[in-house]
Amino acid sequence: MRVLIVNKFYYPRGGDCVCAMSLERLLRERGHQTAVFAMDYPDNIATDFNQYYAPEVSFSGGIGGKLAAARRIFGGAGVKAAFARLLNDFKPDVVHFNNIHSYLSPVIVEMAKKFGARTVWTMHDYKLVCPSYSCLNGGKVCEQCIEGSKRGVYSNRCMKGSRAASLLAWLEAEKWNAKRLQRATDTFVCPSEFMAAKMKQGGFDEKKIKVVCNFVDPEKVKDIKVNTERKDYYAYVGRLSAEKGVETLLKAAVQFQIPLKIAGGGPLAEGLKSRYGRCDNIEFLGHQNAAQVKELLGNARFSVMPSECYENNPLSVIESLCLGTPVVGARIGGIPELIQPGSGMLFRSGSVDSLANNIAAAWESPFDYAAISAQSLPRFSAERYLDSVLEIYQG
Q: Among 17, 81, 114, 305, which lies 20 to 30 A Cα-Cα from 346?
């Protein structure tokens, strides 16, 4: 089978990039012919298809660059010509889209459909039902745009507080609406049941929606040896931003002498360090590479996912479970689907007291680390994921 993988960036920038790159590798290793389409960008990894990439655009340049970036959203600025060349040269049977808004444009989904390829689109965020991607308004969960008009993104200035950026997002949502995108897409792949429910709520046909949970990168669990003798700490790995609920975690953590290690950076990093960095039981580690994260999680008594936003299918939870590390997770978005009895606990999102109670309970719980890993590895395996995706490709 000839499969074209599409993502706006092609380097390990975020979860969408990691999933797209891993899928391309898995398909190739299974004997399928693959190609890649992205926006030309200095950090992209080298492939045999870089010469086909869409010209780079940026919203941070001068007026000319910003106008080109705005045209790209609606299918301009060279993206159609670049994609047409690759379609004609590679002749894919399937085009698998990932994150394409803003820097590529949904126009290429219509092009792939017209070309005769099967079109599959994985939802890594809520962009198709929420013009600002996140279902957040002023830091709080918001569903104003899911079922009705997308005007809310403009009236609430949801895009970086900017009236201009929010207007552009509103116009983009009106052009690339649910009816139009469904005509061009054979299957929407949702990594969580929660995401699938929001897509249906937003007017997408449930017959076009398939749920396929994310997978753990085989390299991250290669030759894994589950540590059953854990060290005396628990861990948070992720972005230090308001919607991730990190301050709720810290407010709960200061109630105990239980050591907490925090890995990651973000807009709240300096403020959180100044307020909580002197606490004897809290350690800010900053950015950690993949090997360091694996060691951190693999030795922790448990990890915490305190999100206050609609998480989709967070890889950090999946990786923790595969290492045998239970997760104390917020009962929000797709998180509860991942945490089964015996593999962690759930608390009320945004509640310091509920989280504190669960931290205390998890610290005293006799978790079976080996059993958690043994149950999670096949559940989140790359083989399981690829089999499901290939079934979708075949219709």
A: 17
